[in-house]
């Protein structure tokens, strides 16, 4: 019962691989190494370098390793990039996923866990947002993921490929044992950017938009520790293996922090008062998005362990220090 992890050399995928290996699962990784790293995949885990859009390769891996479950992370993930270059997001996140799903159906894969996103909700009318809220993405990124959700539901109906769609809120932090973390050289995500500013890796940072309809004028997000997020995937796999039906669930904690609150936390935890500038709004940013996490807790039995912003920030800072040491 080998599990195929696509994007397993990337940030969240590499944490998933560790989580599966830790409990003795057989794992193989498919990753094109466009943003992932060969070193992020443990040596005993076979790594296939290629695209999820390569149907022939996907079929070969599924047959050779008798894949029964796929956890599909491989994707492009930067909201403003998707606004600038929508076609590459639709290719990578929608078309390539369709090809992988086709290979899964033909190869008799039973279970499929899909990395979706809170961006499918757009700017929700109220928070916390439940899974039944209308889906109105504000960016090609959100749309590209929502289309794959639709494909999965139709394919389940037609071919019985059971899925769990997990809609991630804002993933941050690093493996508490410091075996993995967010390693991309070009940081865009808030906590990583702020951690780099605190460590002097960048001169300072900007706050994108201070005129949002929130208490302090900056955007509110639900930041979830990457280890809690991958645990939700293990819970999802157990759910499907136990014969339970396909499901869509949010992955967030159910409470949000503003950009200024996050920056304040990074300053407090690091003890560094770095430079912060006010800047215009960034394209595609909703003002406020916070998860209702009831369904993940009740249907999947998900129990988060790191629901604490200073802990998330501490792990992000530790990982950033480790990366700096690796480079010097
Ligand atoms: N921000 C700044 N300065 C920075 C970086 C970010 O002010 O240097 C702000 C953004 O404008 C936004 C907030 O911090 O208001 C969070 O931005 P991130 O880039 O960290 O994350 P996003 O909310 O844009 O996106 C994340 C994931 C997506 C997911 C989305 C759901 O990357 O995959 O959350 O809301 F879809």
CATH architecture of the largest domain: 3-Layer(aba) Sandwich
Low-confidence stretches: none
Question: Which structural class matches the secondary elements?
Answer: alpha/beta
Helix content: 40-55%
Name given to the CATH homologous superfamily of the largest domain: NAD(P)-binding Rossmann-like Domain
Structure explained in plain terms:
By secondary structure, the protein is of the alpha/beta class. It has two domains: 2-172 and 224-251, 3-Layer(aba) Sandwich (Rossmann fold); 190-221 and 254-327, UDP-galactose 4-epimerase, domain 1, CATH 3.90.25.10. 40% of the residues lie in helices and 18% in strands. It contains ten helices and 14 strands. The chain has helices at residues 11-22, 55-64, 79-84, 86-106, 140-159, 190-198, 226-241, 259-270, 294-300, 309-327; strands at residues 2-6, 27-31, 47-49, 67-72, 111-117, 162-168, 170-172, 204-208, 220-221, 223-225, 247-251, 257-258, 275-279, 288-289. The strands form four sheets. A seven-stranded parallel β-sheet has the order 3-2-1-4-5-6-11, with helices on both faces. It has a three-stranded mixed β-sheet with strand order 12-9-14. The protein has a two-stranded parallel sheet with strand order 7-10. Helix 4 (86-106) runs parallel beside helix 5 (140-159), helix 6 (190-198) runs parallel beside helix 8 and helix 6 (190-198) crosses helix 10. The N and C termini lie far apart (41 Å). Bound molecules: uridine-5'-diphosphate-4-deoxy-4-fluoro-alpha-D-galactose. The site of uridine-5'-diphosphate-4-deoxy-4-fluoro-alpha-D-galactose has 21 residues, from helix 6 and strand 8.
């Amino acid at each position: 019962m080998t599990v195929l992890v696509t994007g397993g050399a990337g940030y969240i995928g590499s944490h998933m691989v560790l989580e599966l290996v830790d409990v003795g699962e057989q794992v193989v990784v498919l990753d094109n190494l466009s943003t992932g790293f060969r070193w992020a995949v443990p040596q005993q885990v076979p790594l296939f370098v290629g695209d999820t859009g390569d149907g022939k390769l996907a079929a070969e891996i599924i047959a050779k390793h008798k894949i029964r479950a796929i956890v599909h992370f491989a994707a492009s993930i930067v909201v403003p990039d998707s606004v600038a270059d929508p076609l590459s997001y639709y290719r990578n996140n929608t078309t390539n996923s369709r090809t992988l799903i086709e290979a899964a159906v033909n190869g008799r894969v039973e279970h499929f866990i899909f990395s979706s996103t809170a961006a499918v909700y757009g700017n929700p009318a109220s928070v916390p947002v439940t899974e039944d809220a209308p889906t109105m993405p504000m960016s090609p990124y959100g749309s590209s993921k929502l289309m794959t959700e639709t494909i999965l539901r139709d394919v389940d109906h037609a071919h019985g490929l059971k899925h769990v769609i997990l809609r991630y809120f804002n993933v941050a932090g690093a493996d508490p044992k410091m075996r993995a973390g967010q390693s991309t050289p070009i940081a865009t995500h808030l906590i990583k950017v702020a951690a780099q500013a605190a460590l002097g890796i960048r001169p300072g940072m900007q706050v994108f938009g201070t005129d949002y309809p929130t208490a302090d004028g900056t955007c509110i997000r639900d930041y979830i520790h990457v280890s809690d997020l991958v645990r939700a995937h293990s819970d999802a796999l157990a759910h499907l293996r136990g014969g339970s039906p396909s499901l869509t669930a949010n992955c967030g904690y159910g409470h949000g922090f503003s950009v200024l609150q996050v920056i304040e936390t990074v300053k407090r935890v690091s003890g560094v008062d770095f430079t912060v500038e006010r800047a215009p709004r960034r394209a595609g940013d909703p003002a406020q998005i916070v998860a209702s996490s009831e369904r993940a807790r009740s249907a999947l039995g998900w129990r988060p362990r790191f629901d604490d912003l200073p802990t998330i920030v501490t792990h992000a800072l530790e990982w950033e220090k480790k990366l700096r040491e690796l480079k010097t």
